[in-house]
Amino acid sequence: MVCDPLRAVGEPTVDGILVDALTEQFRVGEPLVGIAETDDLTVEQVAAAVRYELVRTGRSSSAA
Fold first, then answer.
1. Residues 15-63 pLDDT 10s
2. 4-28: per-residue pLDDT in tens?
3. Contacts 24+ apart (CB under 8 A), 47-53
4. DSSP class of 7
5. Alpha helix (H) residue ranges in 15-57
6. What is the CA radius of gyration of the chain?
7. Is there a contact between 22 and 39 (Cβ–Cβ < 8 Å)?
């Protein structure tokens, strides 16, 4: 078995954090800066993850 650090059980991640978990934080109103600080990521990483997840799930938001 090979572990891919960009995926966790087949789901996309950023530095080991599930993209859908980051997006859920955004959906409940957490600002991108707050998510980035909490998860030790850059704002750009969080924004890209949220955009990816919103497109992947067919939802869109101009805030990300």
1. 989 999 999 999 999 999 999 999 999 999 999 999 999 998 887 655 5
2. 666 667 788 999 899 999 999 999 9
3. 48/14, 49/12, 49/14, 49/19, 49/22, 49/23, 50/19, 50/22, 50/23, 50/26, 52/12, 52/19, 53/12, 53/19, 53/20, 53/22, 53/23
4. E
5. 19-27, 32-39, 43-56
6. 12
7. yes
